C-alpha cells in the first residue's frame, strides 16, 4: 500500500489515523466472511433466529451491550433526583466524569432559571451534543456569551430549550466510546426522551417554591488597611429573591393502543435590585408545553409525534441608568416525528424534526452617558458619578433547523460460532441563522460640560448651555442571514463471539461552512472474563469531530461599528464627523479545519456487593480547536480578529463508580480524578502563535509564556466524589440524599497587573525595563455539599395522593468558597425548597 493510501483526508488535509485503518480492515473482513457464509448456507438451511430475552436494566450501567460509555436514567431516577426547580442537575451529578462549573454554587444560581452548564470528559460546556427525542437542540448562537449588557450580543446558552424534568421519561449520557450515530461534539452526548403514555391514565399537579428568607447567607468584606487613609469598605448586601414553579401533566391511553401526553410547566423568579435609589424587580420566566402522541402502525411499527414550546424571558434594566428597561428572550419551539418499524431483515427508525430558537433583546434605542449637570442630575441624586440613560436597542438572533435521520439495524446473524449485527444510517440537517438590528444604534460618550454651548435646537444629544457629547459609537442597522447544510453517514458492525464483543465503525460528516470532509473511526470492545457477565473488561479508540459554530459566520458578515466625533466653533456644536483614528474590528473566518478529539478508553465492569462497579480510564487529546489572534490596524483602517486552529487541550481522567438497586433503595457512588490542560478558555480567547515565546512574570520569575503549565480554570476540579442515596420508608415516606465533594484546585491565572522585567535596549539606544504580564498560582479550597430531600405521601380518595416535600440544599451549611480570600462577596449556605404535588 502506498503512503497516500495509508492516509485519511479530512478537512482538505491528510492525517495519519491508525484507528481508522484498523476499523476499515475489520469491517471489510467481517462483511467478506459474512457474505461467504450467507452464500454457502442457502435457502434450505434457513432457521428461526434465537431470541435472547434480557431483563430491563436495574442500574444506570445496565442494558449496554456494545461497551459504549452510556449511563441511562429512567423515570425513577428523574423523580427522585430531579430538582424541585424542574432541573435534572441532580440526575447528571450521578455521572462520573461530568463536572459542573464554579458558578453552580454562586448566589446567581439561586435566581437563574436556565440549566447549569457542565463539562463531560474534559470538554468545554458548549462542546456537548444535546438531543431531544433524537433531534439536536444544541445552541450555536454564541453559547459562551454571558454579558446581559453587551451591545451587539445577547447572552446565550448551550441548550436552545430548557426542558422541565416533569416532561422527561429518560436521560442517557455518553462520556466515552460514543457510538457512530452521534457526532458534532468533542465533550459528551446527552439524550433526552420525553414521556410516553402508559396503559392507564395518570396526571399530576405540583407547585414548588423558595425565597431569600429561606437562605442562610455568608457575607465577606474585602481586606482593609487602616493606614491607607481610606474609609473601611461596607459589607455587601445579601440578594433578595423569590422563585416558584407550577407543573401540570396528564397522560392517557387513546383507543386500544395509542396514548397522549400533555404537559405544562411554568417557572418564575423575581429579584429586587436597587437602581437610582429605589428598589425594582428583575424577573425571569420559563414555560414548557408538550403535546405527544404515540400510536402503533400495524403490528410492526410505532409512531411518536411531539410538539414542544419552551420560551424563556428575562426582564431586566441597566443598574443606575434611567429609562433602561429591556427584555431578553430565548428558547423556542420544536416538533419531532419518530417512526420505528420492524422489517423482515432490518429494524428501521426514521426521525424528522423542526426546531426554532432565539436569543433576542427588546430595549430602548441609544445610550447616553451624561455628565451630572443642573437639569440632568439623576445620577448625582443617587450618588452615581454619571447620569446614564437609555439602552442598546432591539437585537434579534435566530436559529432555525430542519433535520432528518434514518437508522437501520440488522437482526443477529450467525457467522460460524459468532453473531454479527450491523447498524447504519444517514442524516441531513439544514440550519439558518440570522442577526438583525433594525435601526442604527448610537452610544454617546465623553460628555463635555460647557455653560455656553449652543445646541442649535438639538436636545437629543446636547443640553443647551450645559453639556454636549464629543464622541459616539455607531452600530449600523444590519440584517444578516447565513445558512448551514450538514450531512452524515455512519455504520457499525458488532460481533459477539464467545466471551468477546467487538464493534468497529466509521462516520463521515460534511458541512458547507467549514467545507471539510471529516471521517471518524469508532472502535470499542469488551471481554467477559469468566463468561458469567460478572467481570467485563472494556476498551475503545475513537475520534470525535466538533461542530461549526455559525456565530463566526454571522460576525464575519456583520457591518462593524465605527466612531464619530465633534467639537464646537465659538461654542456652537458642530456636525458629527468620522473618526480617523484607530480602526474598528472585523472578523475573518476562512480555511479552517474541524476541531477533533482523539480518545482512548480502558475500563473494567464488575458485579460486586449486589451492584455494578465500574472503573474506567479516559484519555482525550483535542486538536485544531478554535481560537483567535488580533492584527494591528491594516491599510483599510480595520483591525482584524483572525480565527485560527491554534487551540488545543488534553484530558486525563480515571473514575470509579458503583450503583445498586435493592427493593425501594437506589445507591450510587463515584470518584473521579482528572486533569485538563488547555491553551485557551473558549473560542474567543486569543491564542497567538508567537505568544508562547513572549516573557511573563510568574511567582516573581521571568519565564516564557509557553512554559506555563496552564490548567483549565473552570469545570476542572481534579478530584470529585459523589454519593447518592434514595430510599422509601414504608409506602408514604421517601428520603433522597446527595453528597458531593470537590477537591482543592490550583490554577494559574493572570492577575491583570504589569511588572518590570529586564532592561532592554531600544533601537534608539535607550534602555528601559520591559513590561511583563503577571501570573500567579491561585488555590480554590475544598467544597463538601450535602442536599437532602424528604417527602411524605398521603393517600386520598379515588386512588389519588397528596405529596409534600422539603428539600434542604447545603444541609450542613458549609462554605462554597465562591468568594476569594480577602475579597468582598456573598456565599449561599443552607437553603430550602418546599413542594406540594397532587397525583390523580
From TrEMBL:
SUPFAM superfamilies according to UniProt: Porins (SSF56935)
Main location: membrane
Subcellular location per the Swiss-Prot or TrEMBL entry: Cell outer membrane
Keywords, comma-separated and alphabetical: Cell outer membrane, Membrane, Receptor
Region Disordered, annotated ranges: 224-244
InterPro entries membership: Beta-barrel_TonB_sf (IPR036942), TonB_rcpt_CS (IPR010917)
Gene Ontology terms: cellular component: cell outer membrane
Protein name: Outer membrane receptor proteins, mostly Fe transport
Lineage of the organism: Bacteria, Pseudomonadati, Pseudomonadota, Gammaproteobacteria, Chromatiales
